[in-house]
Amino acid sequence: MDTNPADLAGAGALESQAGDVDPAAVQDVPAAEGTAPEAEDSGDDGPREPRTAVLSRLRIAGFKSFAEATTVEVLPGLTGIVGPNGCGKSNVVEALRWAMGESNARHMRGGEMDDVIFAGTSSRAGRNQAEVTLSLEEAAGLAPPPNSEVAELEITRRIERGAGTGYRINGRETRGRDVATLFADIGSGARASGMVSQGRVSALIGAKPEERRSVLEEAAGTAGLRARRHEAELKLRQAETNLTRADDLRTQLEGQRESLKKQARQAARYRNLSGLTRAAEAEWMALLAARAEGQLLSARQALDAARATTKATEAAAEAATRRAHAADMALPGPRAAEAAARTALERRRVEGEGLAAAEARARATLDAAIGRLAQIQADHAHAATVVHDAETAESRLNAEAGELAGALAALPARIEAAAERLAAAEDAAREREAEAERAAEAASEAALAFERFQDARRAAEANLRRVAAEAARLEEERAKAQAANVSPEALSSAAAEASNAEAALAEARAGFENAEAARAAAAAREAEAKRAAAEAEAEEARARDAARVAGERARRAAEGHDRLKREHEGARAACIPADRLKAARAEEAEAARAAEAAAEALAKAESDRAAASAALGRARTAESEAGATRARAAAEAQGLAALLRAGERGSAAPVLDSVAVPPGLEAALGAALGEGLDLPADPKAPRHWRALPPLDPAPRLPEGATPLSDLVQAPPELARALSQIGLVEDQARGLAMQPALAPGQALVARDGGFWRWDGQGANPGAPSPGAERLRQRNRLRAQEKARDEAEAALAKARAEAEAARAAESAASAADNATRNARREAESRLSRARQEASRLSASAAMAESRLSALTPALERAEVERAEAEKLLETARAAQQAAPDAAAARAARDAAVAALRQATGAEEAARNARRAAEGRLDTARSAGSALAARAAAAEGRLAALEPQIARLAEGKAEAEAAREAVEREGAGNPDPELARNAALAARNALAEARRDEAEARAARHALEVEAERLATRRAALEEEVASWAARRADSAARLIELTARQEAAAIEAAAAAEAPEEAAALLANASRMLAEVEAAHAEAAAALHAAETEARESAEARRLADAAFAAAREAQARADGAAARAEDEGRAVATRILEKLGPEAELPEPPEDLSDAAEERSRRKAERLAREREEMGPVNLRAEVEMAEVEERLINLEKDREEIGHAIAKLRGSIGHLNREGRDRLRAVFERVDAEFRALFSRLFGGGRAHLALVGSDDILEAGLEIYAEPPGKKLSSLSLLSGGEQALTALSLIFAVFKCQPAPVCVLDEVDAPLDDANVERLCTLLEAMTEGGTRFLVVTHHPLTMARMHRLYGVTMQERGVSRLLSVDLGRAVELAESGMA
Fold first, then answer.
1. Geometric angle at alpha carbon 8, from 7 and 10, rounded to 5°
2. Closest by Cα among 792, 781, 797, 793 to 636
3. Helices (DSSP H) in 1174-1305: which residue ranges?
């Protein structure tokens, strides 16, 4: 549904807020307060007569420092409150103000209102409450009911700590607002003009004109009017806000109504799209079902073809395996032949590399010898050159030394002449410097004197110009003051204009009041007519909408009942029998058990087959590895045997074949016995070994040498030789032990080092054929052992491979059988589950549908009956609805009358406003003329003495200028002095330049002498150096001659070695070529065998891969067939879900391609998406639209009522503004008159007046004070002295107080800024004001004020922090004193 319920709830809340304002209550508020036009007969229209009351007593308990209850009797006359600072005098005044309704804690000198409660001292506990009581007499008619007629009132304010404050009048609780209004009606209150607290005078002095207007408002008693106007304005703003909210809500509801209309149209479209979507889905499902059947048939055919392919690939794989085995068996022979050829090739290559290295070494030796000979020849030529250069340098340096000696002899005379010239230049420079200083001093004194003269002349001229400018300015001001002076005729004309404006204003006010009354009556008639018309229209619309809604509801109820009845019958027919459902579930359970057993058997078979396959793979790998190992070992052993046989000489076996050498000792034994290892033990051989007994005694080897007989296993023929050969760790030990060897003994090291008893030796690493043959013999024995072990491992691996191959074939057969069994079991289980699921879903759907439709059908029958009944009721109400046309005609007539009355009222208001503006303009013009006249007269009087003083100053300035001119005439000319100084400076510069040139010449000669001496010493050193170099070069030349001859002999000897090494290398190259040809032939045979092995292995791999791919293709075909079956079942399930169990599918189209399916799917999805894109559809749109329209009608009625209330409130506010202006104008004239009289009385003369400034509206204008004390000019309050400002402010305060007397007046230290004479005047004024009945409370420190009081209250603080009162009646005290003296 498009309509958001939260939005409707918010709109309802807003509507309820707009309806919270009761228009009738808003209209009655100003009337109840006596300010509405209807209440004009009550007597509240004009300024009310001030009510009076008498404050007789003030009782304080627990307030600030007054811990105990204290009573202050407020008697007629002047009551003074005195005491030292900080004792609590001001607390008495604050208690009075607090009881009158003060609500600001800061005005009570506290942070919060609980601070007025006595807080306690070190010896006295604090209190939890404070209370102040005021006793009023003659107060009938002041208090609200039920005390409205009581003459004596006790007004009590009490505050409890943490619980707030409250008011009581004669013991009955009342509002603080009522108490404040009560005191405002008698001209008093917490902030009234009669409560002159500390700082009130200074605040009035420093206040802005707009802030001083509050003084007039207090005097006019408009505080109540202002409060009532403020309350009315608040209600007006609230009503206007509610009207705005109502307009917003109406706009929102109208938007909802339009939205509901759209929702009704959407519901119809939704139903159409639902039918089209179902048809498209049925067509799509029919196509899917046909495609599923075709896919299932294709999948079964593909499965049969895959099984045939699997059998063919299995046979091909077996043939490839046999071929690969044959190729593996033929590979070891070529590998062994190639290994032997490669070994021989490597040996010849090593031999060739050794011969090539020997040739390179021989050639390098020859090159080094030739290079050394060339270097020695070059060094010999260089030595000869150095000898020649040394002799040449010695001759040149000796000649230069002679020249230096001559120059040094001539230098002393030249230096002495230069010193004489320098002394003369220095004397001349000092003389010129003295002359320049004297000329500069003279020029400076002349310039200073000239500057002093210029400064004095400029100062005199500036003074003369200033005096002239000031005189001109004063003349101009005097002319302006004379021009600004006002004539008496202008003042008279301004007064007459003000009188005419007052008369015109009175006439305009009367006209406006009449127009306003007529407009109010027309507004009432118009509101009543609108209300009646709105009620008639609303009633008519409600009846019409109710009839329409009821008809629609009846139609929908009938349609819904028929539809539900049909669905109920269909659901009853679709129920599934219980025995059929039970049989399907039993079949499903049996198929599940069979599938589980087949799955377990298949898992076991697959595990067995995997294990057999893994065992077969391991056996084949082991067989291949064993065959390869045997072939490598046989080939290497064969090559080593052939190599050893090729190295043997003669027919007898060498003794080497009988020696067993541990690994690592081959080089040591080869170095020790050398060629003797190749000799046989046969005595018939030309050279042989013969067995001899051990030596007796046998010589001992040196300490640290181990006999080889202990390490090597050898025949007896070698025992004596090996016992006398010792093994040492390294070369250093061998060299150290060699001198200690006995005849016939020798030492060897593991790296081939050899040291014999007679001094013969061999360095480590020297080539030894015997050692190489020993290594080859050890390798041959190791390879023969490895070959035998590989033969045994190959036989074992072949047996294991045959057994694994048989086990793998058996496991494969078992796996295929169990797989087929599992497939059949799963197919049976799938069919059983599908049937059971289909039957369960159909049964559940039918039962759910039936259980849901039964109560819905019953409710539909009830709703149908109710809708028909409501339809009859709505039609009857529509016929009985009132006539709205007549009500609308009456409303239009009332609106026109109101519009006419409003225009007349506006014209009268404009006329009154113009009259008020004219009066204010006239009054302002009169005040401005008077002020301007006074200011002009004062300014003229002040300018005359100033002009006279300036004339005298001008004459003095002219005389001073003439004196300066006379003094400057005798000063010297500064220009001549400057020229003389300049000439002296030029001469000084010339002298200093000559001095500098002479000093530079002498310095140059001194430097030249030092340079020549230094050069002579350097020449001596160079001569000695060249002599030494010549001697060294001669000796080296002799040495190089001998070395050159020796190097020539060495180069001739080394020239024969390279040819010999080249011949040996050529022979080795021929042998290497023969071996390489044999190796190439063996490598070709091996390559052919390996190629056959690789091709057969690749063919086997491809065959295995093809077999595996065929099996996988068969598995995929099997899975595709299963998926096709599942797809068919899924299509059936989708048809069941989307179209129901008894859906009839249309005939499938001929085109069953993917494109056709895609088109059908897109069509169905497009229709479904269009339906979904509509979003939520509100099926109750018509009912909700009727509700919204009903709310609109009610809201329109509320708007009419609120508009009427707004009109009433605006009229009330206008009436309050008129009354406030009238009161302020009357009070302003009275206060101005009283202020003028009091000012003259307090100052003993002078004049002053008040003026309204800043605005033409008296309600917004500021109050400015103009005063002219005796002997001074007229000015504003801010331009007076401090005492004058205080007396002027007091004059205004008392003037306001006299215009609106209060029962009590409080003066808190107002005499502090006054001197004694002004204090006397103030006290005299207070005594005169007491004659009017006002009672004064005066807080003071001034002795003269205390003396003029009728009674005194002394405030003491005997206990720190606690105030007490002591009273003295001075009149009674004087009487007692006089009676005592009599």
1. 65
2. 781
3. 1181-1243, 1282-1299
Q: Counting beta carbons within 10 angstroms of the beta carbon of residue 116, is it exposed (0 to 12), middle (13 to 18) or buried (19 or more)?
A: buried
Q: Which amino acid is at 529?
A: A
Q: Give the pLDDT confidence score for residue 19 in this predicted structure.
A: 38
Tens of pLDDT along 318-372? 777 767 766 776 677 677 777 777 777 777 777 777 777 777 877 787 788 788 7
CATH fit for domain 57-186+1303-1382, picks 2.30.40.10, 3.40.190.10, 3.40.50.300, 3.40.390.10: 3.40.50.300
Query: Which residue positions form the known binding site for ATP?
Result: 84-91
Name the residue ranges covered by the structural domains of the chain. Answer: 57-186+1303-1382, 658-764
d(CA 510, CA 507): 5
- Binding-site members are 84-91
- For residue 727, the cross-strand partners are 706, 748
Q: Check: CB of residue 832 under 8 Å from CB of residue 595.
A: no
pTM of the complete model: 0.35
Check whether 1119 has a pLDDT greater than 60.
yes
CA distance 571 to 218: 89
The set of long-range contacts for 902-907, using a CB threshold of 8 Å and a minimum separation of 24, is 902/519, 902/522, 902/523, 904/515, 904/518, 904/519, 905/512, 905/515, 905/516, 905/518, 905/519, 907/515
Who wins on pLDDT, 623 or 1241?
1241
Which residues, 6 or more positions from 975, have their beta carbon under 8 angstroms from its beta carbon?
A: none
Regarding predicted confidence, which is higher, 995 or 948? 995
Instruction: Identify the bridge partners of residue 1307 per DSSP, sorted by sequence position.
Output: 196, 1338
CA–CA dist 355, 1062 (Å, integer): 8
DSSP 221: T
For 1079, residues 6+ apart whose C-beta sits below 8 A from its C-beta are 338, 341, 342, 344, 345
The confidence band for 12, taking pLDDT boundaries of 50, 70 and 90, is very low
Q: Among 1073-1082, 1183-1192, 1362-1371, whose mean pLDDT is lowest?
A: 1073-1082
Six-digit token pair at 19? 């309806």
Rounded to 5 degrees, what angle do the CA atoms 305, 307, 308 make?
A: 65
Separation between Cα atoms, residue 1066 and residue 1070, nearest integer Å: 7
The predicted structure's pLDDT at residue 1241? 84
Q: Which of 78-87, 218-227, 832-841, 1325-1334 has the highest mean pLDDT?
A: 78-87
- H or E stretch covering 1352: strand 1351-1359
DSSP label at residue 117 = B
Distance CA 598, CA 820 (A): 9
pLDDT band (50, 70, 90) for residue 905:
confident
Residues 621-633 have a mean pLDDT of: 69
Phi and psi torsions of 60, nearest 5°: -120, 135
